[in-house]
Amino acid sequence: MRSSQTRTAVLGALSIEPMTGYAVREAIRGTLGHFWSESFGQIYPTLAELERDGLVERQGGARTGSSAFALTAAGRTELRALLAEPPQPGAPRNGVLLRLFFGRMLGPDACAELVRDARDRAEQQLTALAAARADHDHVEHVEDSPYWLLTIAAGEHAARATLAWADEALTTLGALTAGEAGPAPSDD
Questions:
Q1: What is the sign of the dihedral through the CA atoms of 101, 157, 29 and 124?
Q2: CA-to-CA distance for 81 and 49, rounded, in angstroms?
Q3: Residues 57, 51: contact at Cβ < 8 Å?
Q4: Taking all residues of the chain, what is their mean pLDDT, rounded to a whole number?
Q5: I need a surface site. Which of 88, 105, 165, 188 has the fewest CB within 10 A?
Q6: Which among 72, 73, 74, 61 is positioned nearest to 22, based on CA atoms?
Q7: Rg (CA), the chain
Q8: Is the pLDDT of residue 123 over 70?
Q9: How many Cα atoms within 13 Å fall on the side-chain side of residue 18?
Q10: Domain Transcription regulator PadR N-terminal, which positions (predicted)?
Q11: DSSP string, 94-113
């Protein structure tokens, strides 16, 4: 059985409107993308499993790629049950922090570059979220609007926190570069 979180994401996307597998992927990538991702390789097997379980039904063409999937009554019930479960915590995996933790091996200048890249990504995320907020004014699903805005706000807060952390980290790394906070990395 697929991850219940993958099932939740796919059923949730289909709760908005019937979609093809490709449209589900695009909805998850484009709409949920600032806080959730699913690989293309997860979506089609999940759709097949949901169809087999009677939670979605095919509408339209016979080919998988051309037919839309719609939630059944059982699918809506399952989605509500999945949404009521506590979220499954994911193990943290942050490549920037992994590298910074062992930053003595890289040196402060290389670490500063990593932090500047993280800062740039946070600024890009804020720009994308501002566009999502602006696009939100034209959303067709008004009843979903307050909930969607909550996710946009969470992304904005996270990006702003990253910017504040990056500025602080760059100050610390600048002091290391200037030799104010300890010895330079050794080759040992």
A1: negative
A2: 17
A3: yes
A4: 87
A5: 188
A6: 61
A7: 22
A8: yes
A9: 13
A10: 10-80
A11: -HHHHHHHTGGGT-HHHHHH
Residue written as tokens 């922090």? 97
- What is the distance in angstroms between the CA of the first residue and the CA of the last residue of the chain? 48
Interval 73-115: pLDDT, tens: 999 999 999 999 998 787 788 999 999 999 999 999 999 999 9
Buried b (16+ CB within 10 A) or exposed e, 45-73: ebbebbbeeebbbbeeeeeeeebbbbbbe
Closest by CA to 120, choosing from 151, 175, 149, 159, is: 159
What does the alpha-carbon distance between residue 51 and residue 99 come to, in Å, rounded to a whole number? 43
Rounded Cα–Cα distance for residues 92 and 109 (Å): 25
> Considering the chain, what percentage of its residues have pLDDT values greater than 70?
90
Give the residue among 158, 137, 161, 163 at the shortest CA–CA distance from 148.
137
Residue type, 181: A
User: C-alpha distances in angstroms, 45 versus 5, 125, 129?
Assistant: 14, 30, 30
| Dihedral, CA of residue 66, residue 70, residue 75 and residue 76, to nearest 10 | 150
Q: Which residue has the tokens 């695009």?
A: 26
